[in-house]
Amino acid sequence: MRDTSKPQAGVSRVILLAWIGAAIFYFHQYLMRSAPSVMLPELARGYGLSETAVVTLVALFYYGYAPTSLVAGVALDQFGARRVIPLGALLVGVGGLLFAASPPAVAGLGRLLQGMGGVFALLGAAYIAARYFPASQAGTLIGATQMFGMAGGAAGQFLVGPAIAAGAPWRALWVGFGLVSLAIGAVLLVLLPKSQSSAAAEGAGGAWLRDALKALGQVFRNPQSILCGLISGLLFLPTTVFTMVWGVRFLQEAHDIPYSFAVLRSAAVPVGWMIGCPLLGALSDRIGRRKPVILGGAAVLLVCLGLILFAPAGMFPTFSLGLVAGLASGAAMLPYTVIKEANRPDHSGTATGVVNFLNFSLSALLGPVFGVLLVRFSEGGSRELGHYQLAFQPLIGGVGLAILLTFFLRETGRAARLAQGGASAKPSSLATP
Q1: What are the angstrom distances between the C-alpha of 47 and each of 100, 148, 171, 227, 356?
Q2: DSSP labels for 100-134?
Q3: Within its chain, how far is the Cα of 135 from the centroid?
């Protein structure tokens, strides 16, 4: 019932195009994920809500994204990419169209659908990389996939922001986002190859569900899986909660930076991700180890986050802190590689779904909390630097906790396997019962 194909030494052009198509889907999904941060006042007026209420509505993305990660990962393992990824693009497209609607309840449903469908982009691209590409390229490909996502995150700010400033109707933008997602889904349906799992699952009755639940149980029972999810989630929070939602408002209200320049400075973080994700993934593959790169990236992120919140304005060159913070936080993607190496290779999609679920559950649960803290510290009035420092300083502790947890993570890189006497570089040598 599962796709039993193995990563190949050589990769066909069709597979390469399929991975690129999934990565472009991830780019567009991340653009839609980050775009609300540059239009909070417009959304508040359009929906008739406060900005804090709009932030809560926007956070519904993660309430769809996190639980659907489990379904998406299992579905990829059971049915293959062609039957799953285009469906995700369809959900994102419908979600974009609904988000342009006036009633907040309808817009909230649209945001929820964006999250539910968006999860198939990253997991789909990672699934194609794990199934059809050599294992020695795992870290590099996962990093390159995230590079596409962060490019979309940056575009959602430095392209959409100027469009909003120039007077572009925000509703029209969301209609356009939705239509592009539907087109991407149609293209993916053509590009993605058929897999053996599709035909097998059709005639298997309910056996696929039993296999799916068994796979989920095995991945969740592996303590390394839980560690990967927590580490990745704690390293993601500064980006998903702070930069992608509050970054522009923080620069405007705490440092009196004009809107257009605040958008560019906030976008420096995802630009740094574009560099850091493939760079740190390639570095990890090159040295054959995962933990030193995670630790190094997390340590740099911790310092940068502290400086962003507490250093005097103008202490560092413009864009430098955001760029370096984004580069360093690219280490958050390495646990996606570790969890695949620490579980059975035929559970590749399920493992990626589990780490994504744990990762973004933190964003879903804690995202609104930071908004509430900000309102409480500012007592509902105008917000200043001190209010942002009080509200977001727990993020620094979260990164510190990620560093501590990394010491308990088992090294799964090639060098460690060879040092333990396992000459094979296949992920199956690391399967955990």
Answers
A1: 10, 31, 11, 39, 30
A2: TSSSHHHHHHHHHHHHHHHHHHHHHHHHHHHHHS-
A3: 22
The band of 426, judged by pLDDT with boundaries at 50, 70 and 90, is very low
10 Å CB burial of residue 198 (0-12, 13-18, 19+) is: middle
pLDDT tops 80 at residue 257: yes
DSSP 411: P
Q: Are 180 and 367 in contact (CB under 8 A)?
A: no
Which residues, in sequence order, are CB contacts of 394 under 8 Å at separation 6+? Answer: none
Tokens read off for 1: 């019932």
* 178: confidence class by pLDDT, cuts 50, 70, 90: very high
> What is the spatial distance between Cα 208 and Cα 175, in angstroms, rounded to a whole number?
37
Q: What is the predicted pLDDT for the residue at 139?
A: 63
**Contact criterion met (CB below 8 Å) for 275 and 322:** no
Please indicate whether residue 274 or residue 4 has the higher confidence score (pLDDT).
274
- H/E element, 236: helix 223-237
Asked whether the beta carbons of 409 and 229 are under 8 A apart, the reply is: no
Tens of pLDDT along 278-322?
889 889 988 989 999 999 999 999 999 999 999 987 788 888 999
pLDDT for 204 beyond 60: no
| Per-residue buried b or exposed e for 85-100, using 16+ beta carbons within 10 Å of the residue's own CB | bbbbbbbbbbbbbbbb
pLDDT of the residue at 349 = 78
- Given a contact cutoff of 8 angstroms between Cβ atoms, the answer to whether 29 and 80 are in contact is no
Supply 252's token pair: 């405007």
Spatial distance between the Cα atoms of 306 and 1, rounded to a whole number of angstroms: 49
Show Cβ contacts of residue 69 under 8 Å, excluding neighbours closer than 6 positions: 119, 123, 353, 354, 356, 357, 360
Residue written as tokens 């590749």? 348
Question: What length is written for the chain?
Answer: 433
H-run or E-run covering 421: none
List Cβ neighbours of 46 (8 Å cut-off, separation of 6 or more): 102, 170, 171
**Measured between alpha carbons, how far is 177 from 31 in angstroms, rounded to an integer?**
9
Q: What is the 3-state secondary structure (H, E, C) of 352-378?
A: HHHHHHHHHHHHHHHHHHHHHHHHHHH
What 8-state DSSP symbol labels residue 192? S
CA distance 373 to 131: 43
Smallest CA-to-CA distance from 426 within 316, 340, 302, 312 is with: 340
